[in-house]
Amino acid sequence: MKEDLTIEWVTAADDYKCKLSSETQKIAKDELREDKNTRDQALQQMRDWIKMNPRIENSRLDAKWLLRFLRTKKFNVPMAQEAAERYLLLRQAYNPAFNNLDIGEPVMDELLSLGYIFAVPGRDNKGRRVIVARPGVFDPYKYTNADMCKIHAITYEALMEDEENQIRGFVHFADGGGVSFPHLTLFTPREAVRIVKNGERTVPMRHKEVHAINVPSSLKFALDFGMSLISEKIRKRIKIYTSLEDALNNKIDASMLPKEYGGTMPMKEMIELWRKELIEIRPTLILHDKMKVRTHLYSEKAREGAISALKQGFGCQDVSSTDSTLHGITGSFRKLEVD
């Protein structure tokens, strides 16, 4: 194929050298259908597709970035292509929340210091990273929904740069203590639907286990609503406990959790170690702002993240833009005003 010499890609196509352990390679083969031949062919197909796609203005072409989509779609190339394009479109359409992923920003640093969300150092007995989330420490009167999305994006993007994580997946642990109704008003129900649906389709993460404690009974309706939005496969991996004691009694593996939740390392130390990881990966995350699509080649609803539009494809003709019942979240990130 003829190279387009007029484009300087965000990252160039590289010659992939597998540095994974034999154990990880076996997991990739057994669970993701990945081997050298499949990988090499799929990478070439992804690169050719990006270069020929008139909607994609610029992108990363390095193997590690492309493999995050191929692996999460088990090397189904068309599905990986769709996920990659949706990712590029939505991160650009939701610019305030997914660009300038800089942990050095004061608000991002503050949320990290609070322990709102962070990855635990090391790996569990299955080689997976553990992500701790504490939504109750997020002050909905002080921070915006864009702040919330951005700190999540920083966390997940940083983790997905590691091939071990792409293959082995993640364990999530969430403490719902302190969550109240004002937290729910950060997003409208329609915004929540689009974020969850697009997130599951677009964010290339293998969610292996999800454990949640201290979910307020008064917000059960919100939990039920959220559970209805996710796929049955993910729903089956979610375990909800009334308290930490209940979780520990049900033999949850607490060895990787902060000392405050039954582990050995204090949360503050974990957060500082994670901060060092984020600072190291910061240049790569900032580089992502150079990736671009030609938004005018997408329908209005596709740009807004409407699930119906994205399901039907990315063409301008997808869904009539005169339908005003769906408004999306583009440009709607706002600070919650409370009387």
TrEMBL record:
<dbReference type="InterPro" id="IPR011074">
    <property type="entry name" value="CRAL/TRIO_N_dom"/>
</dbReference>
<dbReference type="InterPro" id="IPR036865">
    <property type="entry name" value="CRAL-TRIO_dom_sf"/>
</dbReference>
<protein>
    <recommendedName>
        <fullName>CRAL-TRIO domain-containing protein</fullName>
    </recommendedName>
</protein>
<dbReference type="InterPro" id="IPR001251">
    <property type="entry name" value="CRAL-TRIO_dom"/>
</dbReference>
<dbReference type="InterPro" id="IPR036273">
    <property type="entry name" value="CRAL/TRIO_N_dom_sf"/>
</dbReference>
<feature type="domain" description="CRAL-TRIO">
    <location>
        <begin position="108"/>
        <end position="269"/>
    </location>
</feature>
<dbReference type="GO" id="GO:0016020">
    <property type="term" value="C:membrane"/>
</dbReference>
<dbReference type="Pfam" id="PF00650">
    <property type="entry name" value="CRAL_TRIO"/>
</dbReference>
<dbReference type="GO" id="GO:1902936">
    <property type="term" value="F:phosphatidylinositol bisphosphate binding"/>
</dbReference>
